[in-house]
Design goal:
It is a single chain. This protein is mostly helical. It has one domain (about 35-175). The protein has 7 helices and 2 strands; from the N terminus they run H-H-H-H-H-E-E-H-H. Strands 1-2 form a two-stranded antiparallel sheet. Helix 3 (about 40-55) packs across helix 5 and helix 3 packs across helix 6 (about 130-150).
């Protein structure tokens, strides 16, 4: 039932949310948790919390109308449900439609004389906050995997933690003066 309603983006009607439905959902969650034990719960909760603390409050919600503040303030129970759902999405390879779309808004560029021209605006894409959480978790896992197995060249400075252009310039200066 949970797969049918959540993975295929069909929400149950309010009058269907009775005790039987609640029991079915809880049973499905237990089954999903048993079938996907490979991710440690504490690891997921920590990654999700750290990913959400980096997200800024006060930003516009995406198409799902979920704000960063709501995710940051969620308790462990909701994070555990998110973990189970994320793992189900990993297992099936399907994502909710709202996570794969963006709501595009056009903002005025400051200092433009004529706002009748398309070049006087800049587009921004508002995406799902839960989708962004999942992206951060995937990114942190891939980064840890590549670092652990040394898949990235040790000379690579960009896009790595505690490294950047300053390190590259210092290395270049050292090589030149040696």
């Amino acid at each position: 039932m949970l797969q049918k309603n959540c993975l295929h983006r069909k929400a149950p009607k309010t009058d269907e949310c009775d005790k039987t439905f609640k029991n079915n959902v809880e049973e499905e969650l237990r089954n999903l948790k048993q079938n996907h034990p490979n991710t440690q719960e504490d690891d997921f909760l920590n990654r999700n919390r750290s990913g959400n603390t980096k997200a800024k409050n006060g930003k516009a919600a995406g198409p799902d109308q979920i704000y960063t503040y709501l995710i940051k303030k969620s308790n462990d129970t909701l994070l555990k449900v998110n973990k189970i759902l994320f793992e189900a999405y990993f297992a099936t390879g399907q994502l909710p439609q709202l996570w794969t779309t963006a709501k595009v808004k056009f903002l005025h560029k400051p200092g433009k004389d004529n706002y009748y021209l398309p070049g006087s605006y800049r587009p921004i894409g508002l995406t799902s906050k839960l989708g962004q959480c999942m992206e951060r978790i995937i990114n942190s896992r891939l980064y840890a995997l590549t670092e652990h197995h040394e898949l990235i060249d040790k000379e690579q400075e960009g896009f790595r933690e505690k490294r950047g252009t300053t390190h590259a310039l210092l290395k270049l200066a050292e090589d030149v003066f040696e």
